[in-house]
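Example for reference:
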Amino acid sequence: MSDNLQRDFNAELCAFLDASPTPFHAVDSMIKRLAAAGFQALDEADRWFLEPGQGYYITRNDSSIIAWRQPTDRCAVEHGWRLVGAHTDSPCLKVKPCPELHRHGYFQLGVEVYGGVLLNPWFDRDLSLAGRVTYRTTEGDITSALLDFERPVAVLPSLAIHLDREANSSRSINAQTYLPVVMGQTETKPDFRQLLKLRLQDKGVESVESVLDYELCFYDTQGATLVGFEQEFLASARLDNLLSCFVGLQALIEGRDDRIGQVLVCTDHEEVGSMSACGAQGPMLAQWLERVLPEAGRRNRSLARSMLISVDNAHGVHPNFSDKHDSNHGPLLNAGPVIKLNANQRYASNSETSAFFRHLAEQVQVPVQSFVVRTDMACGSTIGPITAAELGVKTLDIGVPQFAMHSIRELAGSQDAYGLYRVLQHFMQVQRVPG
């Protein structure tokens, strides 16, 4: 039975990854699943009339989302909130504002590098284009729509090794000159905004007068799939960190307990520092909390009984590069979720929160691993320390182990997402947290 549940879970995870090529599409995918589960949309500009036991969600910038089940005020104070946090963005190549290039008969688009992209794997992939387009309607209104070309429309060809004999030993990538993407062959330079208008019309948006601006990125059209001799691995784009968004979403939907405030917060811009109106270093989560518990004293008492689990993937030990890990802290794929620790507070885990997670995992029979970066290497960070500092809430950093983080195609264990989901679902239902 558990094998069937894991297989079904992975099938839904793959469908979510394929439907979510950008943060805008990821939030849209989550909204559809929340609506199907009975959650109601709220607008931050409206007054809210919240009913205990009802699920709600809000979005900001179309790329960040907070979803929750509203407890009674008494339960919120007595039991606190169980929060799961993740981020919707992934490193990618974004189209520039004036991107058109026409060289030697080839139509190209200039791009910016978003986040810490592993650039080499982007070459020679079948690329499509997706994101948000803002336009003026024929009635004079300004509105936005999600756009996805869906099929391969571009490629970034490698230079042949015959023309660069040092390619395998010393080639470095100049992001300005090497990355303009080839879209096709034309006699003249096309108007990119006009192409977007035509694509919107092809998708059934008929009232477009002119495209004013856009936020678009390229993505690999190869879909998520299970690979390996026994399908041990999950291969996909954007595992960091849409895998965590999906796991947290399913834990919220399936872990209902009306006595406890259950929250999923998935914010944008983590890969570039989280400092934005819809990022973890912005005010979105704190402003939400002020609205669901307006009285400051009760809100602070509730936070003291709350806990946030920041979910962001961890570096699994690569068999060809095991020297990049501390020998006692090399997480294995398919060996359970990873508690992430750092003495310098790059991760927010402490002995109480990590012990509590171990306790929860034992109760649902899911193994747990630990990750500490080599002492002579720099450590990345997550939304965990940022949110802990903003709210003063007890926080744990965890994630499933993966290979090729920030590549155009990443690899995780096919057992780990479902195992993490089981622990987070249990976390959503516990009445007390440590401290």
Q: What stands out?
A: The domain at 92-220 is CATH 2.30.250.10 (Aminopeptidase i, Domain 2).
